Amino acid sequence: MISVYYFGAISLILIGLYAILVKKNLLKILIGLSIMETGVNLLLVSVGYVAGKSAPILSEGIRPSQAVDPIPQALVLTAIVIGVATTAMALSVAIILHEKYGTLNIEEIRRLRG
Amino acid sequence: MLKRALAIISLLIIGYWLAQGLAGVPFGEDKMLVGQYYLDHVKEQTGAVNAVTAVVVNYRGFDTLGEVTVLFIASTGVGALLWRKKKKRTAKTEGSIVLTTGTTLLFPFVVLFGAYIFIHGHLTPGGGFPGGATIATAFLLLYMAFVQYEIPHRAFEKTEGAVGVAYVLVGLIGLVIGGYFLYDWIWQDWGFGADNIGRLLSGGFIPIIYTIIGLKVGTELSGIIDNMLKEEVSE
Which residues, in sequence order, are CB contacts of B37 under 8 Å at separation 6+? Predict the structure, then answer.
């Protein structure tokens, strides 16, 4: 049986993908992208988890054999901030689209282009 | 309607496929290969207690330099996309009294907490990236509370450039002393803080690099906030 953390991560990824596939509003698509990113982060962290062990901070009598894998956490630590920055960049593209076309509906933007 | 049904079917297929793939990765079991090496040697090789930040800054410091570059490019991209000849803040409603009073009271403490997070990166969870983001939220609070507020642009741009150069300089000093880029000369050669592991003055160059990253992330995210909140005004 699949673990509840994997299930949650896959559900978040699928919810985000659903928003990207179905929604018409550009802002909602970007929100879906952010949700997907959260799911990927949760998946990475839960792959690194080892049952019964503590955070990889080796103070106060925690030995190296009692800590979980530090590498996925290191990846996610930077991925979160990079995600914020790339979301900001996508949002500024959305701002420009709204200035040019007066709408955020991707189908109307597509029609206005030609 | 058909499109939605097709989307749901394809999502179910993708979800099933992901679950099948993850069935080969048992949850909660020890799968560490290189991670165990890092955990075993982190104290004598880097002087840091927090293995996560040791991996981010020390073992894989070059990656982190690349990630700081990605952040820089994203913030430059936001600045370039939203560039206008004349930009001003156009918000009309002043923040409520709760927001303005709370912001003036809390602002120094939020900045202090952000600085605490990145200075203690080698001891406690966090580090330069979350610390910088915390500092940026302090400036976001100021932007929301006061309609006329703007960050000190000149000082922020200078800090951003200076800390970016400082990161490369720290790496180059390591190259001169130890023979490879981002060599941790403070820990490896000087052994600074060797009898102090687990306290603030230890961890080689991790606190220095994390201060650099914290300042860089803080100024860049504040710059992004500034770019997004201002609008073009016609002459």
Answer: none
